[in-house]
């Protein structure tokens, strides 16, 4: 089943965390969660908003970003189809400290705070899942800091693509990543033209193939360890 035809219920049942729930718990989750469509360039979440939902991506791609005092756009991470985010802020009960914007037309799943907190109370397996989620997220952001401070753009583009293949954070992502060169530039901190140069280099190295509509990963481990 493609993501374009996948219903909200199909998506919820396909998540890693759903496998940890009892049938009764899943019935409540399916009843409480709801779907939202966000067009390209629209806000999935806005900085300063109260946190009301845990958010998943049924189909699409979003970027988690912020703006510096000088107006510079800083992208922290991209979340592709299958990813869920915002659990850390919900656990801390804070207002949102970043914007989340759709890089293309995106279908979003939202789990209300009350349901999220209820699962934490009643489901130990769900709590274990969240511990793993937070641990993977921490590793992702440590890698992001390293990439930004230590690596050249070609290597950043390689690591950006590799980071999308995290089986816990983004399960089910196929080897053909439906992502544009402009989107890769946003996520790796490069212009579209510079991202294109980096992708051509990675293609020449045999790590990816530039296909119509996206980038096909040929050597994931090679991407993870690539150093220009």
Automatic annotation (TrEMBL):
It holds the Pfam family cNMP_binding. Residues 17-137 form the Cyclic nucleotide-binding domain. Residues 151-221 form the HTH crp-type domain. It comes from the Bacteria. Keywords: DNA-binding, Transcription, Transcription regulation. This is Crp/Fnr family transcriptional regulator. The lineage of its organism: Bacteria, Pseudomonadati, Pseudomonadota, Betaproteobacteria, Burkholderiales.
